Amino acid sequence: DAGVIQSPRHEVTEMGQEVTLRCKPISGHDYLFWYRQTMMRGLELLIYFNNNVPIDDSGMPEDRFSAKMPNASFSTLKIQPSEPRDSAVYFCASTSGINTQYFGPGTRLTVL
Amino acid sequence: DQQVKQNSPSLSVQEGRISILNCDYTNSMFDYFLWYKKYPAEGPTFLISISSIKDKNEDGRFTVFLNKSAKHLSLHIVPSQPGDSAVYFCAASARVGTYKYIFGTGTRLKVLA
Fold it and tell me: What is the pLDDT, as a whole number, of residue A96?
C-alpha cells in the first residue's frame, strides 16, 4: 500500500488567501484524522471522521478552518482566509479502528 | 491545558547508553498510551504502546513503563543508536467511545556517535 498521501508537501501563500490541503487515506481505513504540529503545542487534533462523517471537530481553531470528506478516499482541510499564525505542519492520519494511526508525510504551510 | 506533557524538549545521549524519555498525563480516563517517532520531513510513525492494565511493555530495544498512580510513563531505549535520533511524541487515549489521541509536545533525542 502507498500509505497516507498528502498534497501539496509545501505551500507558501500570502495572508488572506485560501489554502486547501488534501489527503488520501490508506484504502480500507474508516477513520481519518487531521492534525496540526507547532513547536509550542506539539501535535494537535483538529478534526476526525468515521466513515466520511465528522465525529469531533472540537479542535478546529476557528471558523476560518473547515474540513470535508466527500468519499472514503479523499479529504480536504481548507483555511479561508489564511493568517500568518496558521503557519505549521499539517498531518493527515488514518486507521481501521485498531489503535495504531498511520500518518502521512505532512504539508508544511507558510503564510506570509 | 496540556493533558499530556513532555517536559524535556531535548535530550542528548551517547551511542550505546540508555535513553529515557518521560511523559506525564493529567486525565485519569486515559487507558492507552503510545509512543511515536518522527524524522524530519516525515510523518510520525508508531513505535510502541501500552494498555493501562500493564505496567511494562517491551519490544526489542524499546521498553515503555507505565506508573498509573503517578500518571507517568517513560520510554527506554537500550542501547541507543545514532538512527534513533528523532523527535519522540507521547500520546494518550481514552479508548471507550473515542479514537482520539492526545499528543505531547515531543522530545528531540540526539544520539551521539
Answer: 86
